[in-house]
Amino acid sequence: MTAEIHNPTNKLSPEAKKVWRITGLIEDVIGLVVIAVLLFLDHYFNWVDWLGWIFIGLAVLTIPSVIWTFVRPHLLYKSWRYDADEEFLHLKFGTITEKHELIPMTKIQAVTTNKGPIMKKFGLMTISVETMGSSHSIPCLKEEVALQLRNEIAQYAKLKEVE
Questions:
Q1: How far apart are CA 49 and CA 120, in angstroms?
Q2: Which candidate among 54, 62, 118, 139 keeps its CA 20 to 30 Å from the CA of 10?
Protein backbone atom coordinates (compact mmCIF):
# COMPACT_ATOMS: atom_id res chain seq x y z
CA MET A 1 0.00 0.00 0.00
CA THR A 2 1.69 3.19 -1.13
CA ALA A 3 0.40 6.63 -0.39
CA GLU A 4 0.51 9.22 -3.09
CA ILE A 5 2.76 11.91 -1.69
CA HIS A 6 1.30 15.32 -2.27
CA ASN A 7 1.43 18.62 -0.51
CA PRO A 8 -1.70 19.39 1.50
CA THR A 9 -3.41 22.59 0.39
CA ASN A 10 -5.88 23.60 3.12
CA LYS A 11 -4.74 26.50 5.29
CA LEU A 12 -5.53 27.45 8.86
CA SER A 13 -7.71 30.45 9.61
CA PRO A 14 -5.87 33.79 9.26
CA GLU A 15 -7.16 34.57 12.76
CA ALA A 16 -4.64 31.97 14.01
CA LYS A 17 -1.92 34.62 13.91
CA LYS A 18 -3.89 36.85 16.31
CA VAL A 19 -4.58 33.95 18.68
CA TRP A 20 -0.91 32.92 18.74
CA ARG A 21 0.23 36.53 19.30
CA ILE A 22 -2.21 37.09 22.17
CA THR A 23 -1.26 33.77 23.78
CA GLY A 24 2.45 34.58 23.42
CA LEU A 25 2.01 38.05 24.90
CA ILE A 26 0.12 36.62 27.89
CA GLU A 27 2.97 34.15 28.46
CA ASP A 28 5.56 36.95 28.16
CA VAL A 29 3.69 39.20 30.60
CA ILE A 30 3.38 36.38 33.15
CA GLY A 31 7.11 35.72 32.81
CA LEU A 32 7.94 39.40 33.31
CA VAL A 33 5.67 39.63 36.36
CA VAL A 34 7.39 36.60 37.93
CA ILE A 35 10.82 38.13 37.24
CA ALA A 36 9.68 41.50 38.64
CA VAL A 37 8.42 39.81 41.83
CA LEU A 38 11.72 37.95 42.18
CA LEU A 39 13.67 41.21 41.68
CA PHE A 40 11.52 42.91 44.33
CA LEU A 41 12.03 40.02 46.76
CA ASP A 42 15.78 40.07 46.03
CA HIS A 43 15.90 43.78 46.87
CA TYR A 44 13.58 43.52 49.90
CA PHE A 45 15.30 40.53 51.51
CA ASN A 46 18.78 41.52 50.32
CA TRP A 47 19.60 38.14 48.82
CA VAL A 48 23.09 37.43 47.51
CA ASP A 49 24.22 39.90 44.82
CA TRP A 50 24.67 37.40 42.00
CA LEU A 51 21.02 36.33 42.25
CA GLY A 52 19.84 39.82 41.34
CA TRP A 53 22.08 39.80 38.27
CA ILE A 54 20.56 36.49 37.17
CA PHE A 55 17.06 37.98 37.46
CA ILE A 56 18.15 41.04 35.47
CA GLY A 57 19.65 38.74 32.84
CA LEU A 58 16.37 36.82 32.61
CA ALA A 59 14.49 40.10 32.18
CA VAL A 60 16.82 41.10 29.33
CA LEU A 61 16.33 37.68 27.70
CA THR A 62 12.58 38.29 27.51
CA ILE A 63 13.18 40.99 24.87
CA PRO A 64 13.96 38.42 22.13
CA SER A 65 11.02 36.39 23.41
CA VAL A 66 8.65 39.31 22.86
CA ILE A 67 10.05 39.86 19.35
CA TRP A 68 9.63 36.14 18.63
CA THR A 69 6.02 36.41 19.83
CA PHE A 70 5.32 38.71 16.88
CA VAL A 71 7.40 36.82 14.25
CA ARG A 72 6.50 33.19 15.10
CA PRO A 73 2.75 33.34 14.31
CA HIS A 74 3.43 34.52 10.76
CA LEU A 75 5.93 31.71 10.18
CA LEU A 76 3.61 29.10 11.69
CA TYR A 77 0.64 30.24 9.64
CA LYS A 78 2.70 30.30 6.47
CA SER A 79 3.91 26.72 6.95
CA TRP A 80 0.76 24.92 8.20
CA ARG A 81 -1.26 22.86 5.66
CA TYR A 82 -3.64 19.92 6.01
CA ASP A 83 -5.84 17.63 3.91
CA ALA A 84 -8.03 14.61 4.58
CA ASP A 85 -9.09 11.90 2.17
CA GLU A 86 -10.49 8.40 2.51
CA GLU A 87 -7.06 6.89 3.19
CA PHE A 88 -4.98 9.48 5.05
CA LEU A 89 -4.94 12.64 7.09
CA HIS A 90 -2.10 14.74 5.62
CA LEU A 91 -0.36 17.31 7.83
CA LYS A 92 2.52 19.60 6.84
CA PHE A 93 4.05 22.13 9.21
CA GLY A 94 7.33 23.52 10.44
CA THR A 95 9.48 26.46 9.49
CA ILE A 96 13.06 25.43 10.13
CA THR A 97 12.42 21.70 9.97
CA GLU A 98 9.47 20.94 7.71
CA LYS A 99 7.45 17.96 8.88
CA HIS A 100 5.04 15.89 6.77
CA GLU A 101 2.74 13.48 8.56
CA LEU A 102 0.49 10.87 6.96
CA ILE A 103 -1.95 9.39 9.44
CA PRO A 104 -3.82 6.37 8.07
CA MET A 105 -7.57 6.68 8.61
CA THR A 106 -7.65 3.03 9.70
CA LYS A 107 -5.38 3.87 12.67
CA ILE A 108 -7.44 6.80 13.99
CA GLN A 109 -9.26 5.89 17.21
CA ALA A 110 -10.74 9.24 18.23
CA VAL A 111 -11.20 12.72 16.88
CA THR A 112 -12.14 15.69 19.06
CA THR A 113 -12.48 19.45 18.84
CA ASN A 114 -11.61 21.92 21.55
CA LYS A 115 -11.27 25.65 22.05
CA GLY A 116 -9.97 27.86 24.81
CA PRO A 117 -11.25 31.31 25.73
CA ILE A 118 -9.01 33.14 23.24
CA MET A 119 -9.86 30.81 20.36
CA LYS A 120 -13.54 31.06 21.32
CA LYS A 121 -13.39 34.86 20.96
CA PHE A 122 -12.19 34.45 17.35
CA GLY A 123 -14.56 31.57 16.51
CA LEU A 124 -11.76 29.00 16.16
CA MET A 125 -11.30 25.37 17.19
CA THR A 126 -8.48 22.84 17.27
CA ILE A 127 -9.00 19.29 16.02
CA SER A 128 -7.18 16.52 17.88
CA VAL A 129 -6.76 13.09 16.32
CA GLU A 130 -5.75 10.15 18.52
CA THR A 131 -4.09 6.97 17.28
CA MET A 132 -2.82 4.02 19.32
CA GLY A 133 0.62 5.52 19.85
CA SER A 134 0.32 9.25 19.28
CA SER A 135 -1.78 12.35 19.09
CA HIS A 136 -1.95 14.89 16.26
CA SER A 137 -3.70 18.23 16.09
CA ILE A 138 -4.74 20.82 13.55
CA PRO A 139 -4.87 24.19 15.32
CA CYS A 140 -6.98 27.27 14.73
CA LEU A 141 -9.66 26.28 12.23
CA LYS A 142 -12.91 28.21 11.84
CA GLU A 143 -15.62 26.44 13.87
CA GLU A 144 -17.66 25.40 10.82
CA VAL A 145 -14.56 24.04 9.06
CA ALA A 146 -13.39 22.22 12.21
CA LEU A 147 -16.75 20.56 12.82
CA GLN A 148 -17.06 19.53 9.19
CA LEU A 149 -13.50 18.16 9.11
CA ARG A 150 -14.02 16.33 12.42
CA ASN A 151 -17.13 14.63 11.03
CA GLU A 152 -15.35 13.85 7.76
CA ILE A 153 -12.40 12.25 9.58
CA ALA A 154 -14.76 10.29 11.83
CA GLN A 155 -16.63 9.02 8.78
CA TYR A 156 -13.43 8.06 6.94
CA ALA A 157 -12.06 6.37 10.07
CA LYS A 158 -15.44 4.67 10.65
CA LEU A 159 -15.71 5.95 14.22
CA LYS A 160 -18.93 5.60 16.15
CA GLU A 161 -20.23 8.41 18.32
CA VAL A 162 -20.26 7.62 22.03
CA GLU A 163 -23.24 8.93 24.02
A1: 45
A2: 118
Q: At what angle do helices 16-45 and 49-79 cross, to 10 degrees?
A: 180
Q: What is the pTM of this model?
A: 0.89
The ranges assigned to domains in the chain are 16-76, 81-157
Counting Cβ atoms within 10 Å, is residue 50 exposed (0-12), middle (13-18) or buried (19+)? exposed
Give one DSSP letter per residue of 58-111, joined into a string: HHHHHHHHHHHHHHHHHHHHHH-EEEE-SSEEEEEE-SSS-EEEEEEGGGEEEE
Give tens-digit pLDDT for 98-138: 999 999 999 999 999 999 999 999 999 999 999 999 999 99
Return d(Cα 110, Cα 7) in angstroms, integer.
24
Looking at CATH, the fold of the domain delimited by 81-157 is given as PH-domain like (2.30.29)
